[in-house]
Amino acid sequence: MNPSSNTPSQQRKAVLVTGAAKRLGQEIAMQFARQGWDVAVHYGRSEREAQETVAQIQSLGVKSVAFQADLADEQAVKNLFSQVSKQFTNLHCLINNASIFEYDRANSNVPLTSQGLQEHMQVNLTAPILLSQLMFEFQKINGNQSDLVPSAIQMLDQKLINLNPDYLSYTLSKAALATSVEVLAMDFAPHLRVVGLAPGISLPSGDQTDSGFSKAHQMTPLGKSSTPSDITKAAVFLAESSAITGTTLYVDGGQHLLSSSRDVMFKTN
């Protein structure tokens, strides 16, 4: 039986997933829906994919609506949360999944630029923190009527422990976001938990070939890194674990334990 079919709508909890139209964000949105959560689907430019995701979620018997917002625009971020919280008064979890992942490296022919760094920081750091602040204010004002403490989950990267110089702007933005997990968890308690979730290589990126991805995926102590299913199950686990806050869960097959001078994408062809 569908887990949502015997859960009255007024008792269901809702989650906002940013970047939920495609790839890992879509997988996370679908997993929450399968567990009976209502889902607010944020997208930037992928309207068709977002509406398809909403339709799939609705077919599971839960509520879902798509919301467009440019996360590089502060007012758009605020408007996004306002719209979501009005339609999903049962909002209980925020997944900051959307991010920019563009290559640069200080010692390369694609060096860091001010514009590139600012773009990464705006989407990968500023927007998640703004949304987390808004989520905290929402929970503080409305109060929590359940035994489950609401949460903001920041999607990070195993790369933060296994550092290398590739993707410098991306790495710096995610490192700052990782620091915010502990700081905000202290500041937002007891109204909102803040948790980090750090995947390993889970889906092909950029121009990575299927063969290259397969090789990279096996470069862990366990012989395989994380799958989208691993990450989505971990996200639901964190959302439903009231005692977890101010820490990061690494779901990567131990990938962060193997030091590397290059990003794993460049070690396979």
Describe the structure in brief.
This protein has 269 residues and is of the alpha/beta class. Helix content is 40%, strand content 14%.
How would you describe the overall organization of this protein?
- There is one protein chain.
- Helix 1 (23-34) packs across helix 7 (228-239), helix 3 runs parallel beside helix 4 (114-142) and helix 4 (114-142) packs parallel to helix 5 (168-188).
- This protein has a 7-stranded parallel sheet, with helices on both faces.
- It is α/β, with parallel strands linked by helices.
- The protein contains 7 helices and 7 strands, in the order βαβαβαβαβαβααβ.
- The model has no long low-confidence stretch (mean pLDDT 89).
- The chain has a single domain, classed as Rossmann fold (3-Layer(aba) Sandwich), CATH 3.40.50.720.
Structural domains: how many:
1
Number of strands: 7
Widest sheet: strand order?
A: 3-2-1-4-5-6-7
Q: What are the secondary-structure elements, in order, as H or E?
A: EHEHEHEHEHEHHE
| Radius of gyration, whole Å | 18 Å
Taking pLDDT < 50 over at least 5 consecutive residues as the criterion, the unreliable ranges are none
Number of helices: 7
The CATH topology turns out to be: Rossmann fold
Give the integer mean of the pLDDT values. Answer: 89
Q: What would you say the CATH architecture is?
A: 3-Layer(aba) Sandwich
Report the biggest beta sheet as strand number plus sense, adding barrel if it closes: 7 strands, parallel
Briefly note the structural class of the backbone.
alpha/beta
The portion of residues forming beta strands comes to 5-15%
